[in-house]
Design goal:
The structure holds two protein chains of two kinds. Helix content of chain A is 34%, strand content 6%. By secondary structure, chain A is mainly α. The longest helix of chain A is centred in the C-terminal third of the chain and has 17 residues, at 134-150. In chain B, 18% of the residues lie in helices and 24% in strands. The termini of chain B are far apart. The chains are: A mainly alpha, B alpha+beta.
């Protein structure tokens, strides 16, 4: 189940979840960065937990809930995390952004009122080569404030699930 | 008027980026996101050794892997005068290693195939025989005589390739 939509395909046992999402489903928001579980660009939520999809086989996701960046927010409204990245300039080239936002989304669902140190620790598995992280941390703080003020969940006003 | 009272509209003003809308929705459309008809994938075989003579490269098994379209070595590229390319500092740089490898991770061969998995499989089928040479691991050692990395360059007697 990807972004609340049941998806079925016959795949090679070794096909990575990342390639399944990108090539089979055509959801290219999830990016292949390092291919070695280091950079976090391929992060998706697996039953609500962030995983690096370049290190998960597609077959391991059979019967599980996958959320990708395409499942954040709704067509008309951004999720608090997406909005925060825009408001606080949390991206430049945008390549790491989907992975960053997925990690941040799972983190804020677990800890809606984090300290700066907790945010930095939570995002330590995601690399950004543009921003120096300062604005990414601000973006997550922005999202946390928006969530507590509006009561909207980290995934957005109309969470697909 | 104090500086912070001036409504600056240009330099120094905080501006929202218009391109964010697609980036935060996962619609960035990077090179890797393109899918074109008949598109093939390339995988590179890299040297595990920092400095070594290439004794032989056997690509026969890679060629036999189903789904493989092309296996290229430096020797093949050299036949088309494509093994070495000019750089911006009037130097030349190996595209694929020919006579020897000069750093760890140098490109030795590449495979073009139907998909990245097949290309990777085929790369693993390439057998390279190396004759290891002494490596240089720090600048001090590079300056002392003994090991010459760029022995392909006429008249090159040390490891200094460019001075500015």
């Amino acid at each position: 189940v990807v972004n609340d939509e049941p998806r079925e395909a016959e795949v090679e046992p070794r096909l990575l979840l990342l390639h399944f999402i990108r090539e089979v489903l055509g959801l290219t928001g999830t990016h292949l960065g390092c291919d070695t579980t280091s950079c976090g660009a391929c992060t998706v939520l697996y039953d609500g937990l962030p995983v690096k999809s370049c290190t998960v086989f597609a077959v391991q996701a059979d019967g599980h809930e996958i959320l990708t960046v395409e499942g954040l927010g709704s067509p008309s409204e951004l999720s608090p995390v997406q909005e925060g990245f825009h408001e606080e300039h949390g991206l430049q080239c945008g390549f790491c952004t989907p992975g960053m936002m997925m990690t941040a989304t799972a983190f804020l669902e677990e800890n809606p009122n984090p300290t700066e140190e907790e945010i930095r620790w939570a995002l330590s598995g995601n690399n950004c080569r543009c921003t120096g992280y300062q604005n990414i941390v601000k973006a997550v703080q922005w999202a946390a404030r928006k969530m507590s003020a509006s009561g909207v969940s980290a995934r957005g006003a109309n969470p697909i699930h | 008027m104090a500086l912070d009272e001036i409504q600056i509209g240009g330099l120094g003003a905080r501006r929202k980026r218009v391109e964010d809308a697609r980036f935060v929705r996962g619609k960035g459309n990077y090179i890797d996101d393109f899918k074109l008809p008949g598109m093939l994938h390339m995988e590179t075989l890299r040297s595990p050794i920092a400095h070594a003579k290439i004794k032989s490269i056997d690509t026969s098994k890679a060629w036999m892997t189903p789904g493989v379209h092309l296996v290229v070595t430096g020797e093949m590229a050299a036949q088309h005068n494509l093994a070495w390319m000019p750089t911006l500092s009037y130097d030349t740089q190996a595209v694929l290693a020919t006579d020897k490898v000069r750093f760890q991770g140098q490109e030795v061969a590449c495979v073009v195939a139907d998909d990245p998995y097949i290309a990777k499989d085929a790369v693993e089928q390439i057998v390279v025989e190396y004759d290891p040479l002494p490596p240089i691991v720090n600048p001090k050692q590079a300056l002392s005589a003994g090991v010459l990395i760029r022995d392909d360059k006429a008249g090159q007697t040390n490891n200094i390739c460019y001075t500015w």
